[in-house]
Amino acid sequence: MNIAIIKYNAGNVASVMYALDRIGAKYTWTDDEKIIKSADKVIFPGVGEASTAMAYLKEKGLDQLIPTLKQPVLATCIGMQLLCKHSEENDTECMGVFDVNIQRFQSNAVKIPHVGWNSIKAQGENDLMKGLNEWEYVYFVHSFYAPVYQDTSAVCDYIQPFSAMLQKDNFFAAQFHAEISGKVGQKIIQNFLDL
Amino acid sequence: MLTKRIIPCLDIKEGRTVKGTNFVDLRDAGDPVELGAFYAENGADELVFLDITATIDNRKTLVELVKQVARQVNIPFTVGGGIGSIEDVSALLHAGADKVSINSSAVRRPGLVDELALQFGSQCIIVAIDTRFVDGIDWVHTHGGRNITPIKTIEWAKEVEQRGAGEILLTSMDTDGTKAGFANQLTAEISSNSSIPIIASGGAGTMEDFYDVFTLGKADAGLAASIFHFKEIEINALKNYLAKKGIPMRI
Predict the structure, then answer these.
(1) Which domains does chain A have, with CATH numbers?
(2) Fewer CB in a 10 Å sphere around the end CB: N or C, chain A?
(3) Contacts of B161 in chain A (CB under 8 A)
(4) How far is it, in rounded angstroms, from Cα A166 to Cα A151?
């Protein structure tokens, strides 16, 4: 199988590559349109800030390419947020695969960012949590979130319920870091590769 | 529910785990990769690797070690010890570390925290604070707690948060090694005034000490070394104990 990891300016993807190594999957880290288009699976990872990440994707034309991909795409963390319609983080227009707006957590009572292991629960159609328990713990680090809406495929609770995962057609997204979420994260990645 | 985290800390010297360990079931308890993987399999929520030699010669060894750990370990891990520049951090993150921890270098040049947060994101920058109570006040110390600074711990914690630290690793030199419990009062004061997670370190001797640091100390995570290495406390047993007492834990 031919996996493309999208190369852009959002953070460090070493953990994602090592997670794929542990599973024994081969991948290419690339921003080349042809390679991305012809891959069997595409992973769109990222840690970073929305507006600078979107600016870079636009410069490379990747903002046009990504929403048109037909193979299974897995977006994580900022990757997931960039697939939504708009982000409150520096008022950023995103790619709009998922018809939902990213908001900032607001609370005087609990800490922001949301950092650590929290439980998620599958909801509706969720192909990536197959073979897992109804509730599982995964590792989060984020200050912005997607509210729960029709494409939410797993819910987490922090301040209020929010989308831990989204799923629509060939697009799969996780707010948490599956690559460092222990055996649960490994199973989620494996399920994506098995699609 | 967001859980409290239990973090074993491995001290590394020239690529090997120091402080003897009591893991008879490991082939080589001095191998940080094997020990780290063992902890990841047995309930640890995160790992911290602290390079206690941290000379330039050892940097390459450390980067190699980080690569091996990253290949084996599927939970977040932090690397600390002697990190003083953007280049150091870049090398460690690219090798697969999820976070880095800086200490004396941030005290020497506080702007480093801003630079690292801007370059790599706050989520991967932990500022470690070594503190000691002297003449009625908690002061920041450097160089493994040997040197006192004119900086008050409470104020430094606020400052590093404002500069972009993603988490604070607070080690009390007063309790470290005593096994008499964490510095709960100071930890609580810092945690209450902070929006970023506080990892408490120093003084863990019993399971109850962890209960206290999460309740009285308001810590988000508890870190310890020897009690885990010598199997005085097993992490899974500790987490079950805490969960039974109502502390949210990933079991």
Answers:
(1) 3-88+101-194 (3.40.50.880)
(2) N
(3) none
(4) 5
Which residue in chain B is spatially nearest to A120 when comparing CA positions?
B1
Subunit contact B75:A180, Cβ cutoff 8 A: yes
Instruction: Name B127's Cβ contacts closer than 8 Å, sequence gap at least 6.
Output: B101, B102, B103, B106, B113, B160, B165, B167, B168, B169
Segment B177-204, tens digit of pLDDT = 899 999 999 999 999 999 999 999 999 9
Give tens-digit pLDDT for B65-96. 999 999 999 999 999 988 999 999 999 999 99
Both structure tokens of A195: 């699609």
pTM: 0.95
Closest CA to B126 of B46, B218, B34: B46
Residue in B66, B198, B223, B250 to test binding to A, most A beta-carbons within 10 Å = B250
- Give the residue carrying structure tokens 């690292």: B116
B55 to chain A, any CB pair closer than 8 A? The answer is no
**Mean pLDDT for all residues in chain A:** 95
Beta-sheet strands, E only, within A12-159: 27-30, 41-44, 73-76, 86-87, 92-93, 101-104, 114-122, 135-142, 144-145, 152-158
- Using CA coordinates, name the residue in chain B closest to A160: B1
What is the DSSP pairing of strand A73-76 with strand A86-87?
Answer: unpaired
Which of B:125-164 have CB within 8 Å of A? none
For chains A and B, CB pairs below 8 A equal 83
Picking from B142, B114, B115, B118, the residue whose alpha carbon sits closest to that of residue B128 is B142
Mean pLDDT confidence for A20-49: 94
B247 touches chain A (CB under 8 A): no
Three-state DSSP state, B184: helix
Q: What is the pLDDT of residues A153-187, one digit of tens each?
A: 999 999 999 999 999 999 999 999 999 999 999 99
In the prediction, which pLDDT does B118 show? 87
Q: Which domains does chain B have, with CATH numbers?
A: 5-244 (3.20.20.70)
Cβ within 8 Å, pair B93-A12 = yes
Interface mutation target, options A117, A176, A181, A183, chain B, most CBs of B under 10 Å: A117
